[in-house]
Amino acid sequence: MTIVMLAPKMTMGHGVAEAVAMQMRSLRDMGVKSVVGCVQYDDHYADVAPARVAADAGAVADFASGCGASVIVAHGSPYFEVLPELSERFRTIVYEYGDPTPELFADDAVQRRRGVEWKRRHLYPDVAAVTAISEFVRHDIGWPAQVIPLGVEHIPDLGPKSDEHTAGRPLRVGALMRFGAGEARYKGHAELLDLIRWVPEAHWEVAGRGTPDDARALIDAGVTLNLNLDDDARTRLLRGIDVFVTTSLWEGTNLPLVEAQALGGLRHRGAPRVHAVCVRVRPGDGGATAGVPNRPCPA
């Protein structure tokens, strides 16, 4: 059996691309062939050999037939829109990562809401199966999807961190996010800046995809900015910080939070690995901050 994966982007810094690559590697280990078509790709995922495939039913059908595939799994728009036309020839599957609340996007909230309703009325009923990355997404889409959670197989298992002496230096606080202006609201840029102002004594290290212009407000706030890190540099950052924070207002699965957790766990006095997520919600604005301590929890 051959499976075709369809993803909008197979580029570094996008969680969907990381999830698709993880699935393809796992399938390969099980002896199942898979290929991936996408609108855009870079060399970060060269090991799964992405190919450019136009988001129309004819192009996707030709690609799948040429690969000898019988199953097509779409991981987002614009490929969701072509699946219903392919359902008679192939087993078509939606892998749903969810949609951020449309109202978080002032410029196209109405269009985004229509897209959510279209999927519920015209996509999910017309494919063979719908899967979701989390219980939250299954609830959010309003469809009885099968949940296949994301993992962190792409993160190296470095074991527990040593209990390093931290007295006499500022707390190292880290965050990962995308900096594009179109995503600034739902990724919680304003909330992160608030948090930086509330804890000025910390040493802030923020990493993500974007340009210096996209991250100008963070630069002006005096943080250590790390743009477009590769996997090894991301691992060093997450391994070196004391606390990880995320201020995103919506995530189907908060992959950076799980990555930080996987790299920051410690054993304390012989206890199993322990993590805590601290959430603060400010009344009236829906904003939240969450932190995963990378130091051992106090006894």
Written overview of the protein:
The chain has 2 domains: 2-147, Glycogen Phosphorylase B (Rossmann fold, 3-Layer(aba) Sandwich); 172-293, Glycogen Phosphorylase B (Rossmann fold, 3-Layer(aba) Sandwich), CATH 3.40.50.2000. Helix content is 29%, strand content 23%. The chain has helices at 15-29, 57-66, 83-86, 109-123, 135-141, 189-198, 216-220, 231-240, 255-264; strands spanning 2-10, 33-41, 51-52, 71-74, 91-96, 129-132, 146-147, 172-178, 203-209, 224-227, 243-246, 278-281, 288-293. A 7-stranded parallel beta sheet has the order 3-2-1-4-5-6-7, with helices on both faces. A 6-stranded mixed beta sheet has the order 10-9-8-11-13-12, with helices on both faces. The protein is globular and about 65 Å long.
Strand order of the largest sheet: 3-2-1-4-5-6-7
Which CATH C-level class of the largest domain is it? Alpha Beta
Portion of residues in beta strands equals 15-25%
> What is the C-alpha radius of gyration, as a whole number of Å?
21 Å
Structural class, by secondary structure, is alpha/beta
